[in-house]
């Protein structure tokens, strides 16, 4: 029987999408990382951002289920880490502190839009000052 491209793609995507196996200690760490990535967002808003339901986020935060690798990658990125760093952390390896710029960016991702707007204005003002000082 011939193998179709769709069969290969579904196998590849199935492997990519499968949740990793996580021990109890790793699950507790994952719960903390998911909550950190969500920040002040509601579970519904965070789920919408990731393309999953609020129920899925709730199950992750209770430790009842584990996100698939695609969502783990998104959660890792929101937390300032790579997927590999996050998976290593869940396996017991130490997690380095995100760089200062990543810490700032992570804070921006979870702050209220009114504060993000203030930062945007400050950045625009800074660019304007630099542009004027360069005579542009």
UniProtKB/TrEMBL annotation:
Gene3D superfamilies: lambda repressor-like DNA-binding domains. This is Helix-turn-helix domain-containing protein. InterPro entries: Cro/C1-type_HTH, Lambda_DNA-bd_dom_sf. Pfam families: HTH_3 (PF01381). GO terms for molecular function: DNA binding. Residues 41-86 form the HTH cro/C1-type domain.
């Amino acid at each position: 029987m011939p193998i179709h491209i769709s069969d290969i793609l579904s196998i590849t995507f199935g492997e990519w999408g499968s949740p990793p196996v996580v021990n109890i200690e790793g699950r507790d760490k994952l719960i903390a990382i998911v909550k950190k990535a969500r920040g002040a967002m509601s579970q519904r808003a965070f789920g919408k951002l990731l393309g999953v339901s609020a129920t899925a986020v709730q199950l992750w935060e209770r430790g009842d289920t584990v996100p698939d690798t695609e969502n783990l990658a998104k959660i890792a990125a929101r937390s300032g880490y790579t997927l590999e760093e996050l998976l290593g952390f869940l396996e017991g390896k130490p997690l380095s502190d995100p760089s200062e710029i990543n810490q700032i960016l992570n804070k921006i991702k979870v702050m209220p839009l009114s504060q993000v707007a203030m930062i945007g204005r400050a950045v625009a003002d800074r660019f304007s000052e630099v542009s004027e000082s360069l005579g542009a």
